[in-house]
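To assess whether ligand presence alters the predicted conformation, the chain was also submitted together with calcium ion. Input:
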Amino acid sequence: MASDEVSVVVIEDDPHISDLVAMYLRRDGFRVVQAGDAERGLAAIGRESPRLVIVDLGLPGELDGLDVCRQLAAATPPVPLLILSARDDEVDRILGLELGADDYVTKPFSARELVARVHAILRRTSTHAGGQAPPVVEFANVAVDTGRREARRDGEVVALATREFDLLAFLVENQGLALSRQQLLDGVWGPDWYGDERTVDVHVRQLRKKLGTDLPLATVWGVGYRLG
Ligand code: CA
């Protein structure tokens, strides 16, 4: 696998953290571009078209990490995003926003764990890449196109974060089945992910908010969620 082709942009103003992350990623064969603030980071993203962006929330200058998240969330197709955060409550806030990062780590973190998560995100986002075009599945005014990785509501493309789309695609694949939060975590976030089941609820809320009540995404009491 030509993982040396895979580029990652790291936006972090603390040079020690940035260098450490870059060193571990390079050791695994990634091409790494480091940026010390959001402006340089966004410029690097424009140049590199990276497969993944790692961004610290607290950045110097006029734009912070949240601004980077917002810009990436609006991109189509969205760029997978891993957030570095100083505090857990900061992460709660991020997940509650419509930015829907793919994953996050709270400082201090182990570089090895971070790299494991990078691999997990890339595995997850690339499994949906190739292959023949799967059908578009429609629910009332909502269409889910797993080939184009797009959800449309009334014909308009709805901006979903990578992980939100992955969750939706997994629910579509398992249409009609009641899935537990743990099954959803395993299926969408993967076994390497160390988060809790609350993450599923947050993402379900986002899907409901963005796609509306015509998406038949039901809460199954005592179990989890079921689509259709
Ligand atoms: Ca910082």
